[in-house]
Each structure stands twice: as C-alpha cells, then as structure tokens.
Amino acid sequence: MALERTFSIIKPDATKRNLTGKIVAKFEEAGLRVVASKRIQLTLKQAQTFYGVHKERPFFDELCEFMISEPIVVQVLEGENAIAKNREVMGATNPAEAADGTIRKEFALSIGENSVHGSDAPETAKEEIAYFFSGLELVG
Ligand code: DAT
Ligand code: MG
Q1: What range(s) does the Nucleoside diphosphate kinase-like domain occupy (predicted)?
Q2: Dist. CA 86–CA 119, nearest whole Å
Q3: Residue 120, ligand 1, Cβ within 6 A
Q4: Separation of CA 29 and ligand 2 centre (Å)
Q5: Residue 2's pLDDT is what?
Q6: For the chain: N or C, fewer Cβ within 10 A?
Q7: Per-residue pLDDT reduced to its tens digit, 74-129
C-alpha cells in the first residue's frame, strides 16, 4: 500500500502535563513519521469549526471549551495505512475501553480529556490537514 497521511492533535490535557514527547514517541514506534508539526492555541470559533460534525451532541460546548483551554500540537503523520494505524495507537475514545499500550490507555484522563485526536477516514484526513497546514509546511 502507498504512503498515507493523517491529521493528529495532541490535546490540552496532554500538552499541559508535558506529554508531547512521549506521545510522539508512540507514533514513531508505530512506524508513523511526523511530516509537519506546530504548537498553536485555537480560538473558540476554530474549535467549533473543527468539531462542527459534533455540534448537535450534548458534549459539544464542553469539548470546544476544553480544546481552547491550553495550547495544542497539530501534526501530520505519514506511513503505510497511517489513518488506521494512528487510530490503533490512539486507542478507544473512552480510555476505560482502550487497549493496553495505547496512548489513551496510558495518558487519557477521561472520555473528554482523552489526549489525542486522529482523523477517521481519508476524506476527513484531507480536510483536516488542509484546515491547519499549507502545502509548503508538509515536508515528507
Ligand atoms: P474520537 O476522538 O475517538 O474520534 P469522536 O469523534 O466520537 O471520538 O468524538 C470527538 C471527541 O469528543 C472525543 O475525542 C472526546 C469527545 N467526546 C466524545 N464522546 C464524548 C462523551 N460521551 N462525553 C464527553 N466527550 C465526548
Ligand atoms: Mg472522531
């Protein structure tokens, strides 16, 4: 299979606890390569746009407030089967259900403060990468 790219966020609960390096190490150990990376702090509007698909969900306001509470690290990860591989290394949304060795099992605090975001499909990966990065920032 050809190389694939996916979009990742290291979320506020993780940047706050200085876990960026440990989380990047998990990606690298899984065979994913960081081809773009920056630390930013979202505005409320940006968080609401990014998570727009969840706007009718009861946790939407809480989710957006959390995502703007501290800086985040946005990244593009590249590798064979990168989208699925990243979801695997992240673990289940709810850390109580995440498999041993996954990022969420080791680091997440709760279903909301769950340390990482990863794209769920090729179309969303493409959209999410384009929302945060220009072509010039992707160095494969
Ligand atoms: P994932 O991040 O695993 O793709 P998702 O897309 O279903 O999960 O939800 C996006 C984020 O919203 C998730 O990472 C944390 C938050 N969230 C999801 N379900 C939640 C719930 N029941 N209570 C609080 N926050 C929730
Ligand atoms: Mg999702």
Answers
A1: 3-140
A2: 8
A3: yes
A4: 22
A5: 85
A6: N
A7: 999 999 999 999 999 999 999 999 999 999 999 999 999 999 999 999 999 999 99
Do 66 and 116 touch, CB atoms closer than 8 A? Answer: no
Count CB-CB contacts under 10 A for residue 27: 25
Is 93's C-beta closer than 6 angstroms to any atom of ligand 1? yes
% of the chain residues with pLDDT over 90: 98
* Non-local CB neighbours of 107 within 8 Å, separated by 6+ positions: 14, 17, 19, 22, 23, 115
CA distance 57 to 123: 22
Ligand that lies nearest to the alpha carbon of residue 92, given by its number in the listed order: 1
Cβ-based neighbours of 41, under 8 Å, separated by 6 or more: 68, 70, 71, 72
